[in-house]
Amino acid sequence: MRIDHIEISKLQIPFTQPMKVAIGSIDGADNTIVRIVTDTGISGWGEASPAAYITGDSPETNYATAQQFARLIKGKDALAIEARMAELNGFTVGEPSIRSAFDMALYDIAAKAAGMPLYRFLGGERREIRTDLTIGQQATVEETVAQAQAIVDAGFDAIKMKVGRPGLADVAHVKAVRELVGPDIAIKIDSNQGWDYPTAVANIKAMEPLGLQYSEQPLKAWDHDGFVRLREKVDLPICADESVFTDKDALKLMRAGAADYLNIKLGKAGGIHTGLKINAIAEAAGAKCMIGCFGESRLGLSAAAHLAMARPNISFLDLDSCYHFKADPVIGGVEFDEKIGGLLHLPDTPGHGAEIDEGHLTDSI
Fold first, then answer.
1. 76 counts as catalytic
2. Which residue out of 112, 160, 188, 265 is catalytically annotated?
């Protein structure tokens, strides 16, 4: 099955409200869509959603790199994912978002060729998967509480809170949300590298009575030693996110004893191919994984949800970016349950099941 041609397009969808974190802010999806078409007529869809302050790439660099990737793999075997990803990963050590888009399109093709939903193609079976919903950094505690109330009203059983403010400013926000939602809603905090070691210790100690699930990326991405010291100092589990892009990063973190959990994002890892390796390393070390997102539509989230479905060691889901879209450009794919907040439903159609309504696409080449 040969790659006949590759269509590269842009997808731009505004959010209902900006998502502010400690190191940046995003007010909409500015993504690159890839459709790989084979000589058999089977095609696969992928999506890149860069976050420059984390991944180091941008919509402009994704779009340009996609054209180079297309020339590199055109005419080659679409089912030889190992070889194709070796070529793409060898072409550049950067641009993880667009590498992820090509990766998920190749996996979409392979699962379609096998006549299987992607999670089955990856060796998984159907299980219940449920995502949290994120509260970005708000200016006041009252605004944070209002968002938490909306999440509870929508039936979610887990909330992720963006923290990382100076000093102990985060404590009042998290405390107010816990008082609102009671003890049965899971709350996890994500600092996005916003704290230094003393601030992380002070905040986590101050939040000890609040029954949090874990602290995500409390320190700078490079500070593995700080992660080790922090784990020795506090009881709350520590999750690494920006510290882990590749399986090599995962191996270093696990060897150092630097994290309890690892966050796989396809846009960081360069796709499912590396995401599987990260999970395998974490599982071998006795560590659970979460799976997260940047600003993907339901297309990118569908690929991530299939990976989560296929690997029970991926225990925590943060696949909520499309929840903030002003418009839904996706046909098929993962769906949010209408009654149970955060419960995700995957179709049993071959592949990851999602494609983009071409009316939402621009600049196809």
1. no
2. 265
